[in-house]
Amino acid sequence: MTRAEVQQITLRRDTADPLPVMESFYTIQGEGTWTGTAAYFVRLAGCDVGCFWCDVKESWAPSEDQYQTSEEIVREAKASGAKRVVITGGEPTIYDLTVLTDALHRAGLIVHIETAGPYPLRGDIDWVCLSPKKFLVPRADLYERVNELKVIIYNDDDFRWAEEHAALCPPHTQLFLQPEWSRRERNYPKVLDYVMAHPHWRLSMQTHKYLDIR
Question: Which residues are within 8 A (CB) of 111 and not within 5 positions of it... i.e. 6 or more apart?
Fold first, then answer.
């Protein structure tokens, strides 16, 4: 998906109801602060960040048969038994999420988002996980809302990149380094050494992949 196409989606879907849901499922969070907790994931289609190592490239371009209303999304999330809903992508900040997040809160659900942060964060979000990417950097006004910073370590320069973004986050932000999955055997020792030398960071593992769950 090109940035021009994303801009057209943003203009066309400014109220963002319905939204293109590539998939939704109830599972165990495998990454970051909430690892090991149950959560209902809503994966929105549409992304122009372009991470070449992305493991969900099928989420980049929405299709017309994917659109669901906020009412439908909330009904399915509530039926799952979840207490927390994680809005992910794709890149969910393409859309104005206000209608969806308000509906989720009315249903008594806690709302998380996982984003690279390239677009305005629109909606009432309880927990913001920022995972910045070099391909399309986050907006400066997003950092003040970040609860969790999760930086993917693909090469050695990503440690410098991680520190640059950590310096922009509030003091309460929880900081995670996560080895990119395809290079995990090579990068886990480096990340472990870095965390031990810089203990303001924590290790994030994609435990759902080790458990072979979604």
Answer: 84, 85, 87, 101, 104, 105, 123, 124, 125, 126, 127
Rg of the chain's alpha carbons, rounded to an integer?
17
For the stretch 115-148, pLDDT in tens is 999 999 999 999 999 999 988 889 999 999 999 9
User: What is the residue range of 185's domain?
Assistant: 3-211
- Angle (CA) 83-85-91 rounded to 5° is 170
Separation in Å, CA 46 to CA 95, 163, 180: 9, 28, 22
Distances (CA, A) of 199 to 70, 85, 196: 41, 30, 6
Let me know: does 21 contact 73? Beta carbons within 8 Å: yes
Query: 148-190, pLDDT tens digit by residue?
Result: 999 999 999 999 999 999 999 999 999 999 999 999 999 999 9
Residue 191, domain CATH: 3.20.20.70
Beta strands across the sheet bearing 174-179 = 67-68, 19-28, 38-44, 84-89, 110-115, 127-130, 148-153, 174-179, 202-203
pTM: 0.90
Domain count, the chain: 1
Strands (E), 45-96: 67-68, 84-89
**By the 8 A CB rule, do 73 and 24 touch?**
yes
